[in-house]
């Protein structure tokens, strides 16, 4: 290592003392050695220009370069260490990905790539050098992500705890429009009277579940304080309503009918007419069935398509059932055994061509033959349904929050360990500062 370092520094000094022609050109020099890599003065100068350009764009005043250069130097050291890790992993950022990243940078500044190039030129920054700096940033970021992910462990209990905490925070801003029916119990009611009241409340619940109008039942049967308003309590936050109501409606959504539940005054039934401030997530699930034919040296694309066209016509004509045809012909063994049924799924799990078919086909319609990467298909949508995924979305959000928190913590720890274990020497940088 010492011989190699002496060789680099020797070349630098040699460049400063060779012939008059070389002396006419500005020479680069090594300012820092980081393990087996070097940071050049040109790297420092280029980053300083970038810092000045970004600050000018934001109207942000900067301290003197003599102060900035220390921060720039530290950033370059940390970037170099991460690039060395990236090289060990074989990470490469190709030109297509680089172009996409630069286009996004330009878009975030509300300009085209051409306009970005012009702004860089006006700031004295070479576009090719800018491109390579972005490539370095992306490469370092990917290496950091790979290494830090390995250090993160998130327990299910942590997710559940954060879901509860977030739910409580959200609950503070939620308002419910509720209606109420009370079957009153007199003070000191006998067991027989309690049983009669409970039975009446359950009968009302049965009627409501069968489609009876809540307001009409409240007018006719409720003994509650809002009976003459059809049981309507209007908009209330959980803090404004009786505690027993707030406990019951927690986690419930619009349209929910809750109860009967008992308090000291009788049996209650609640209906949530509407909710404000509650985040809900609903997805469409589709139950479909299909028949798949795979091409081979024996069965061509044209042959598979014609065979499925005939099968489709036979099913439509009632000459055979879809289930029988799937069991006999489909090359998808998992669904063929179930008559071609794929079960309730969100369309996103399917390849694009199949997804497009199940999203657009009317229920009960068999598609024309179509091709995917798996082969040739016909598909029929049996039914669609809306599914509440609010709980799953809340867990996903909690997981992302925990991951982000831990990633930032572990990234700092990893970078500190990386720097502590590195060989760093700053001959050129120290001389300049002295």
UniProtKB/TrEMBL annotation:
What cellular-component terms does GO give this entry?
Answer: outer membrane-bounded periplasmic space
Can you tell me which residues the record assigns to a coiled coil? none
Question: Any idea where the PpiC domain is?
Answer: 173-274, 283-383
Extract the PROSITE patterns matched here: PPIC_PPIASE_1, PPIC_PPIASE_2
State the source organism's domain of life: Bacteria
The EC designation for this entry is: 5.2.1.8
Keywords (A to Z) from UniProt: Chaperone, Isomerase, Periplasm, Repeat, Rotamase, Signal
Q: Where in the cell is it found?
A: Periplasm
Q: Does the keyword Metal-binding apply?
A: no
Name the enzyme group at the top EC level.
isomerase
User: What InterPro entries does this protein's entry cite?
Assistant: OMP_Chaperone_SurA, PPIase_dom_sf, PPIase_PpiC, PPIase_PpiC_CS, PPIase_SurA, SurA_N, Trigger_fact/SurA_dom_sf
Q: Which GO terms describe its molecular function?
A: peptide binding; peptidyl-prolyl cis-trans isomerase activity; unfolded protein binding
Reactions this protein catalyses: [protein]-peptidylproline (omega=180) = [protein]-peptidylproline (omega=0)
Record-level GO BP terms: Gram-negative-bacterium-type cell outer membrane assembly; protein folding; protein stabilization
Q: Where is the signal peptide?
A: 1-22
- Major localization class: periplasm
Q: Which PANTHER family match?
A: CHAPERONE SURA (PTHR47637)
Please give the record's comment on domains. The PPIase activity resides only in the second parvulin domain. The N-terminal region and the C-terminal tail are necessary and sufficient for the chaperone activity of SurA. The PPIase activity is dispensable for SurA to function as a chaperone. The N-terminal region and the C-terminal tail are also required for porin recognition.
HAMAP family from the UniProt entry: Chaperone_SurA
Which NCBIfam families does the UniProt record give? PRK10770.1
Role summary: Chaperone involved in the correct folding and assembly of outer membrane proteins. Recognizes specific patterns of aromatic residues and the orientation of their side chains, which are found more frequently in integral outer membrane proteins. May act in both early periplasmic and late outer membrane-associated steps of protein maturation.
Record protein name field: Chaperone SurA
Q: What is the lineage of its organism?
A: Bacteria, Pseudomonadati, Pseudomonadota, Gammaproteobacteria, Vibrionales
């Amino acid at each position: 290592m010492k011989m190699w370092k002496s060789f680099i520094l020797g070349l630098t000094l040699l460049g400063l003392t060779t012939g008059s022609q070389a002396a006419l050109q500005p020479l680069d020099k090594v300012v820092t050695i980081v393990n087996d890599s070097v940071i050049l003065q040109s790297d420092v100068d280029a980053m300083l220009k970038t810092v000045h350009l970004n600050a000018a764009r934001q109207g942000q005043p900067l301290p003197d370069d003599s102060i900035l250069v220390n921060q720039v130097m530290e950033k370059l050291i940390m970037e170099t260490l991460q690039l060395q890790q990236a090289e060990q992993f074989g990470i490469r950022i190709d030109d297509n990905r680089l172009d996409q990243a630069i286009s996004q940078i330009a878009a975030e500044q509300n300009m085209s790539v051409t306009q970005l190039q012009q702004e860089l030129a006006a700031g004295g920054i070479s576009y090719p050098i800018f491109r390579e700096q972005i490539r370095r940033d992306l490469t370092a970021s990917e290496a950091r992500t790979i290494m830090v992910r390995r250090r993160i462990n998130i327990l299910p209990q942590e997710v559940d705890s954060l879901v509860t905490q977030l739910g409580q925070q959200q609950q503070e801003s939620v308002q419910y429009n509720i209606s109420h029916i009370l079957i009153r119990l007199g003070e000191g009611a006998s067991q027989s009277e309690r049983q009669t009241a409970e039975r009446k409340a359950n009968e009302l619940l049965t009627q409501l579940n069968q489609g009876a109008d809540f307001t009409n039942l409240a007018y006719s049967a409720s003994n509650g304080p809002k009976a003459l308003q059809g049981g309507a309590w209007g908009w209330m936050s959980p803090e404004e309503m009786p505690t027993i109501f707030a406990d019951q409606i927690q986690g419930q959504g619009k349209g929910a009918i809750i109860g009967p539940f008992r308090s000291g005054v009788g049996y209650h039934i609640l209906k949530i007419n509407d909710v404000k401030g509650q985040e809900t997530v609903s997805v469409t699930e589709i139950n479909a069935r299909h028949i798949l034919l795979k091409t081979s040296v024996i069965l061509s694309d044209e042959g598979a398509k014609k065979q499925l066209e005939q099968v489709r016509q036979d099913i439509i004509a009632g000459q055979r059932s879809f289930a029988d045809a799937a069991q006999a012909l489909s090359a998808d063994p998992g669904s063929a055994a179930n008559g071609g049924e794929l079960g309730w799924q969100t369309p996103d799990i399917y390849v694009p061509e199949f997804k497009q078919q199940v999203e657009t086909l009317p229920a009960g319609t068999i598609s024309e033959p179509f091709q995917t990467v798996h082969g040739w298909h016909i598909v029929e949508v049996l039914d669609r349904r809306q599914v509440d995924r609010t709980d799953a979305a809340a867990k996903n959000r909690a997981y992302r929050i925990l991951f982000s928190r831990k990633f930032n913590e572990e990234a700092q720890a990893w970078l500190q360990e990386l720097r502590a274990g590195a060989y760093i020497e700053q001959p050129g940088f120290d001389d300049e500062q002295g």
